[in-house]
Amino acid sequence: MIFKTIQKVIRHSVLCHPIICRPNRLLSASLSSPVHQTIFKNLFSTMSYYIEERGSPNTLDYKVYIKNENGVVSPFHDIPLLADTSGKVFNMVVEIPRWTNAKMEINTKAALNPIIQDTKKGKLRFVPNVFPHKGYIWNYGAFPQTWENPEVLDEHTGCKGDNDPLDVLEIGYKVAKRGEILKVKVLGTVALIDEGETDWKVLVINVDDPIAPEVNDIKDIEKHFPGLLKATVEWLKIYKIPDGKPENKFAFNGEPKNAEFALKIISDAHEYWKGLVQKENSEELSCVNTTLNNTASIGNDKVQAILSESLPFSEPSPLLPEVDKWFFIKSNGMIFKL
């Protein structure tokens, strides 16, 4: 089945957004690919997910926890990678809705891995608007139960992993919501080298997007979304320049790879994640979870204790006008801003 995501808002003393998944239409399953078979061996989920916000948006105290009908779950460890029985539809955790600037990310170091806003020198981080782009040009997020291993040298990039879940760029028409769990299919990947670390960007589309049946591989992106692949590589290449950093580099000269290649990257990252959660000591990363039934699993009492350390949800703090500033970059790397 493909699942359609619907979200409505209910406010309590904290804010909870139900994300309800229901059957939509049949997807013909073909599991002949060895990569599909490897991933398919793991459990999939048709669970409904919600968010619970704590603290005030646009502050250091803001956190987004993910919940299902049984309580809080870790978006890093508890949400299954697969979304259905076909082996082709994956769960994506949305961290950053399209057109927004706040650099939100799964906090891999905190128990239960809430989504928080990244910081730089103690200040909230916002991605600059590099003309002609406004914020993120896709719905940006991560695949659960994946990990780019910082101890392994990637054969394609020659660099070690960045110690995070795999990044996902969703290209459908709908602007997603922070913390939403999308059902997506894989189209391809770009091999970014970010400050000397491997940082794969997997291109996907929401399976409920009207054009999704026609978009199945990297070549279909150029056909149905002309210019988006070029803009994606450009965005990833230059987005850190306004912060005083050099252009990012790519393996394969920035050429996007196809869906089958991307599925192998996902399969490898899932295997690295399985090794991570089996470690007795995962060093800086938190493997605390509520569903895996391993030594890092915790019950509701400990979950509530973790939540109690966060402030109750409150109204967003106003954004500084600088967040909307334009940056213009010449071919020689010179920066102009308005």
TrEMBL record:
InterPro entries named among the record's database cross-references: Pyrophosphatase, Pyrophosphatase_sf
Highest taxon of source: Eukaryota
Keyword match Magnesium: yes
Gene Ontology CC terms, in alphabetical order: cytoplasm
GO-annotated biological processes: phosphate-containing compound metabolic process
Keywords for this protein: Cytoplasm, Hydrolase, Magnesium, Metal-binding
Gene Ontology MF annotations: inorganic diphosphate phosphatase activity; magnesium ion binding
EC id: 3.6.1.1
UniProt entry tagged with the keyword Magnesium: yes
Cofactor(s) required, per the database record: Mg(2+)
Annotated localization: Cytoplasm
Pfam families hit by this protein: Pyrophosphatase
CDD domains xref list: pyrophosphatase
Family: Belongs to the PPase family.
Protein name, UniProt field: Inorganic pyrophosphatase
Organism: Sipha flava
Lineage: Eukaryota, Metazoa, Ecdysozoa, Arthropoda, Hexapoda
Gene: LOC112687178
